[in-house]
Amino acid sequence: MKFTDGFWQMREGVRAHYAREARDVRVQDDRFTLYAPVRPIGHRGDTLNTALVTVDCWSPAPGVIGVRTTHLAGSVRRTPEFDVRGDPGASASVRRDGSTIELTSGSLSLTVSTDGPWQMEFSADGTTLTGVDSKGTGFVEDADGVHHMLGQLSLGIRELVYGMGERFTPFVRNGQTVDIWQADGGTNSEQAYKNVPFYLTNRNYGVFVAHSGPVSFEVGSESVGRVQFSVEDHSLTYYVVHGANPKEVLARYTALTGRPALPPEWSFGLWLSTSFTTSYDEATVNRFVDGMAERGVPLSVFHFDCFWMREFHWCDFEWDPEVFPDPVGMLSRLKARGLRTSVWINPYIAQRSALFEEGARLGHLVRRPDGTVWQWDMWQAGMALVDFTSPGAREWYAGKLKPLLDMGVDCFKTDFGERVPTDVVWSDGSDPHGMHNYYTQLYNATVFDLLLRERGEGEAVLFARSATAGGQAFPVHWGGDCASTFEAVAESLRGGLSLGLSGFGFWSHDIGGFEGTPDPALFKRWLAFGLLSSHSRLHGSRSYRVPWEFDEESTDVARAFTRLKCALMPYLFGAAVQAHREGTPVMRAMLLEFPDDPTCHHLDTQYMLGDDLLVAPVLSPDGSVEYYVPEGEWTRLLTGETVRGPGWRREVHGFDSLPLLVRPHAVLPVGSVDDRPDYDYTDGLTLRVYGAGGPALAADGPAVVTVPAADGSAAAVFRISRSEDAVTVEADPAPARGWKVLLVGVDGAEPADSSTVTADGEGGTLASAPAGAARLSLRLP
């Protein structure tokens, strides 16, 4: 929200009050509190008839410093609070030297002075990261008398800002006004389904504004050298999070707000939906499933969208008996074919649903101030909202879902959760504006917790649309309602990369677009992109998304890239474990992997898939694509050709191809199974070693590749090293059924022992280790 009229004046009716000096301070061993009047104090009389801002500074975790500014403490709104998880090992310390006070946590320090004008400086390793000046701490009363707390942090020259949730506007936030307010606005507006009051910059720090209600950010848009954030309240809390690089910033931020759960292996396969308003029954489902099987397109999950329930009954969680007369038998038959099933739900109860009267009678539906149930006719006739602030309502809602799990449903698509009214009273007394954004957290947590109880850790997974800070703990999230255009592909990708820079590890989107029907060219390009995303779903609104509906080549593309993804699962699931343990997203903005390459700071039409795969989706009907290759010799995964960077490339690709490059000197674990995502990844594994003919492997020391088991533990750890004339791979433990090493681009390597068999071909020298072998060594030509 903008308060000023240019640099010199305030907007009409706006009164601003800024901290002017640190008049007093209370210092403890690991924190301090500043008392800052909003005018300079020259004599005792100046202390009268003036406001005081209380500024608390502390550290919840190493490398993180929290700041809370408060005006009138008794007027602070009772908003829901984000679960900020402190680290008992924070070990922050405060040092006072005359008028200077310094709070240090890890490598991050906050320095203030009680002498002179108001100023705060955040620094790390002797370098200033950001700071607060004379207009950076205070409160503002607007023309309507609404009270806002305000914070401002400086931006450096060429400093870029990212994140704030899944946003479809330009990837770099500089120059934008961003309002953290949940909305169902599609993917082509400034509104967002997933609003996260956290931003990351290319200066190796992030800022989390821990306010669950609306937060307004001005990112170099009101004061061009600052990020301003304001809330309608009497208190404002924010955390500055430092890291040695952007990945470490995300690791520390997600340690505060929650790391993503590890989704089950099967969820990484291809999901097929009935689509939204299309006509379907069990015969349609069988036709789709049979068609995929007959055409050799591996399918992992079948999703039933809204109309598995009767019209006007959403949600009563009852199958439409005329369309699905035998749901238990149908689910059993699908499971016998190796498929998991998902069903669509939302948190709304239509008046015609049998649950409406029950929920109202039990007090589980949100009410207006006059005690009546809040209802409207948008989306569903007479619909109400479940009051998830009530433990009883959460238990009641989960209890209605449990019979679906008992009959064989595996997971839920938790749609909606954005259009939450503010003219209501919540069971726990929460401020309605705070609950508008936070509602989705309670909704998704309720469903995810049920899945944890019923299915167990490692089997729980959602397909969620709305989220806020901390929502990353309940994967997976998808990008919402996008159009069927190439522009919408780019919009969706920007949103996904922004979400990843906001702490979310897993993300998907509707392959082919939701609104409208894609032409065959767009559908085929989107297939390649979708199957090189963390999660992959075919879904639309008014038309089916089975590939043969478009053309036969679409089936070929679907088959090829689905099988490629299944074969890459030893690598992709390793990236998933990394997201779960460290907070690094599976799909990564180039900035995360190449923070020292300024060109990568702006890239939003390509990404890294895990540590070692660069993906540049084709965003044009004619197959032309422009993308950037960072430094080094990269290898095309699909052809084995090499590409040298740094530099931009312009290419034209057929529908069976796209820029998919392997990082220089990477070791890529590739599975022996390409028709399902869940299998023993060590069985017949091939380690594809890139750059084995050069000196880098020796210079960098052994490369370590961990191939995960289903629970995220290490099924096997491989160490790849080379001397002057040999490449040696050691496995711990040794795979029980044999494994292989492919030296990509190196022909004529020979085995160093008789138990290893080698052959040239497949783009290099392929060596096979027998079952139980723990070591394989190859002499280079």
Task: Describe the overall structure.
With 781 residues, the protein is an alpha+beta fold. It contains twelve helices and 47 strands. The strands form ten sheets. Strands 4-5-6-7-21-18-17-15 form an eight-stranded antiparallel sheet. A six-stranded antiparallel sheet has the order 3-13-14-20-19-16, with no helix packed on it. A six-stranded parallel sheet has the order 27-24-23-22-31-30. α2 links the parallel β22 (270-273) and β23 (301-304). The longest helix has 24 residues, at 432-455. This is Alpha-xylosidase.
Any chance you could write out the topology, listing elements then pairs?
Layout: E1 4-5, E2 9-10, E3 15-18, E4 24-27, E5 32-37, E6 52-61, E7 64-70, E8 93-97, E9 100-105, E10 108-113, E11 120-124, E12 127-132, E13 137-141, E14 147-154, E15 161-165, E16 176-180, E17 195-201, E18 205-209, E19 215-219, E20 226-231, E21 235-242, H1 246-257, E22 270-273, H2 282-294, E23 301-304, H3 327-336, E24 340-345, E25 348-349, H4 354-362, E26 384-385, H5 391-406, E27 411-414, H6 432-455, E28 477-478, H7 486-500, E29 507-508, E30 510-511, H8 520-530, E31 536-538, H9 552-567, H10 569-582, E32 587-588, H11 590-593, E33 607-609, E34 613-615, E35 624-636, E36 642-652, E37 660-662, E38 667-670, E39 686-689, H12 696-700, E40 703-708, E41 714-722, E42 726-732, E43 739-744, E44 750-751, E45 757-761, E46 764-769, E47 775-779
